[in-house]
Amino acid sequence: MTFEVFEKLEIKVQQAIDTITLLQMEIEDLKEKNKCLNKEMEWLKTNQETLVSENEQLREEQNIWQDRLRCLLNKMDEV
Questions:
Q1: Residue 1 carries which DSSP code?
Q2: 60-72 residue pLDDT tens
Q3: Distance (Å, rounded) from C-alpha 8 to C-alpha 18?
Q4: Torsion from C-alpha of 17, 18, 21, 26, nearest 10 degrees
Q5: What DSSP assignment string belongs to 9-59?
Q6: Distance (Å, whole) CA 46 – CA 70
Q7: How far apart, in whole angstroms, are the C-alpha atoms of residue 79 and residue 73?
Q8: What's the pLDDT at 50?
Q9: Going residue by residue through the chain (79 aa), what tens digit of pLDDT does each one get?
């Protein structure tokens, strides 16, 4: 009877060890995915900042061209 109890206990301990090992592997996988996602997030953030800057520059250029066009149209109206 005692032997059976020890066998059952051994099986449960082995199952616990297996579960812990699988969970540790899953944690490592999740850490790696998190690392990759953090890198991607940094890249996207940098890309966004670049695009925002470029957008601001293009808006400024557009305003300059609009001003020039208005001036030309005003000159044409004067003629």
A1: -
A2: 999 999 999 999 9
A3: 15
A4: -140
A5: HHHHHHHHHHHHHHHHHHHHHHHHHHHHHHHHHHHHHHHHHHHHHHHHHHH
A6: 36
A7: 10
A8: 98
A9: 788 999 999 999 999 999 999 999 999 999 999 999 999 999 999 999 999 999 999 999 999 999 999 999 998 888 7
Distance between CA atoms of residues 36 and 30, nearest Å? 10
* Domain layout of the chain by residue ranges: 1-79
The structure tokens listed for 6 are 């020890």
Q: Which helix (H) or strand (E) holds 64?
A: helix 2-78
Q: Which two tokens stand for residue 58?
A: 């293009």
